[in-house]
Amino acid sequence: MEQAVESSPERKRALTSLLLPALAVVLLWSIWLLDTGLELGLGRFGLYPREAKGLWGILTMPLLHGDWRHIFDNSTAVLLLGWCLLYFYPRVAGRVALLTWIAGGIGVWLIGREGSPHIGISGMIYGVAAFLFTSGLLRGQRTLMALSLIVVFLYGSLVWGIFPLVADMSWEGHLCGAFVGLVLAFAHRHVPPAVSDPKPSFADEPDDDEPAPPYLEDDAGDAVDERELEWKRKLAERTERPGNVSTTWDPD
Question: Which pTM does this prediction carry?
Fold first, then answer.
């Protein structure tokens, strides 16, 4: 006999949180494959700092990539960090993604090196990583602090990307994205996350949800109905008042 098993709400939310990052990766690869296969040269639509034509790059920069290694590395980070953002902080996930995209791009347009376009979604990746790490520390919950440690373990080497160490790498985009993510973590530190630490339970603590037994026992060990005891107390109170007193006990 087959029995249908419904997935828990947490499992559904975990799968749902993966949907948007997966769609984002599909979009990035579709653009890159079209660009590479048809030799469209879409890199010319990247962000040119302090140039009027570069303003469009604020919107297009995260969608464009160079070689396959560039887009592959960014795709894995988008999947993992995007899932973490949507799963742990769904209330601010959209705001964090949008502001790291726009504000980070504006920062690159202001301080970026001139001469060649800046492309890639790595600025947003730095922003989300900085937001997740800082938010976990600020909230002080064990679960979120563990998430911060995981981010450091997997992407701790990203910190070198905010320095001008590699000639063809947009360290400005990394720096601006990380700065925006840090600011957003402080700005939204009072927004409750979707996951909280489990409450510890002890065997010797009474269960508050367990209903009290309707019967007690007297000194002789006989069962006593609590309603009967209540009736007797009310009867004793009435006997102290003048007037007739009914001695009939109706348990209902």
Answer: 0.75
